[in-house]
Amino acid sequence: MMSVPRFWRNTKARYRMIGRRCRRCGQVYFPPRNLCRRCRRRGELEEVQLSGRGEVYSFTVIRTPPVGFERSAPYVMALVKLEEGPMVTAQLADVEPEEVRIGMKVRSVFRKIQEDGEAGLIYYGFKFVPVEGEHDVQGE
Ligand SMILES: [Zn+2]
Fold first, then answer.
1. How far is it, in rounded angstroms, from Cα 86 to Cα 118?
2. What is the pLDDT of residues 87-133, one digit of tens each?
3. Cα(54) to centroid of ligand 1, in Å?
4. Which residues have CB under 8 Å from 12's CB, separation 6+?
5. CA-wise closest residue to 2 among 129, 130, 120, 110
6. For residues 87 and 80, is the Cβ–Cβ distance under 8 A?
7. How far is the C-alpha of 44 from the C-alpha of 114, rounded, in Å?
8. Do 135 and 99 form a contact (C-beta atoms < 8 A)?
């Protein structure tokens, strides 16, 4: 458990979903990129705080998870289209696989992603949960 606080500190900046926006064309990138795909060298990217809100664009139910994710199976990996435009692949939480549908409104939360029992490491990152009011949200 000793390694957790340090890891947390290192990733704290990612808790706020920070992307980059091109000043020239307005395209938003997340994860942040160094170069605008459209404008290349003519573009100028600036940091922008994203709302973390979006909707499910497509999704897959994972029933045979990779090593380290066994305990959370089955779970849903979704391609989420953020309000600002970028597409993000992330796990959906607080929702049953049968309840997920295309176009469902979601918001990002900072959650435990994976636990490595042998190394005692816990990894954190973004997941998406249904926006309240659309579903009966249950705690983990
Ligand atoms: Zn651009």
1. 36
2. 999 999 999 999 999 999 999 998 877 766 677 777 778 899 999 75
3. 22
4. none
5. 120
6. yes
7. 35
8. yes
Q: What is the pTM of this model?
A: 0.74
* Amino acid in the structure at residue 82: L
Q: 17: CA distance to ligand 1 center in Å? A: 20
Tokens matching residue 49: 């705080």
What residues have their beta carbon closer than 5 A to ion ligand 1?
A: 22, 24-25, 27, 36, 38-39, 43
Residues 6+ apart with CB under 8 A from 51: 17, 82, 83, 84
Q: Which residues of 88-99 are buried (b: 16+ CB within 10 A; e: fewer)?
A: bebbbbbbeeee
Full DSSP string of 8-61: HHHHGGGGS-EEEEETTT--EESS--SSBTTTBTT--EEEEE---EEEEEEEEE
Contacts 24+ apart (CB under 8 A), 35-39: none
